[in-house]
Amino acid sequence: QGLRAIEVSRLGAEDTNFATGTALIQGKSRQGKEVIYLEPMTAEALRHYVKAANVKTGPLFVSFGNRSSNRLSTTHIQRLFRAVFKALGINKTVHGFRHFYATKLLESGLDIRDVQKFTRHADISTVTVYDDEQDIKEKAEQIFPIFRSLYAV
Predict the structure, then answer these.
(1) Paired sense of beta strands 16-17 and 22-26, if any
(2) Mean pLDDT within 26-36
C-alpha cells in the first residue's frame, strides 16, 4: 500500500474497518487521520493477522521487546522488512518499497495528482521525483505523434 514505516507503526486496531475495506492512517505530520482504501489482499492478510494475534484494541502491530511502548517502532519495522526482503532476494528498504509503489502507480497511467493522494504526499513536487524516473523513451514515442499534425501546416 506504499505506507511509511511511521504510518504502519501508528496504525491501531480501531483504525481498520474490514467491512468497508478501509484504514485510518495518521501521516508523518500527525495532523489527523485520513482514510485509505485497502487492497483486498492486504485487507485479507490484516484480517487473518488480527484474528491470529487476537488484537482487539490499541496498536495493531505490537512489540514484544522491553520498550516503554508496546507499539512496534519504525526501526523494528525496518529491520523486519530488511530480513523479509533479504530472504526473498529483494534489494529494497521500506522506503524503497514505497518508492516502488509510487513508481508503479505512475507506470500504470495514474495521474500524478492521484499518485499524490495514494502516497499521501503533502507536496506534489515530491511525487515528481518518481515521475522523473519514468521511461522517457516510451513517453517520447507517445508524444511524437502529436507533432505530426503540425507537419502539414
Answers:
(1) antiparallel
(2) 83
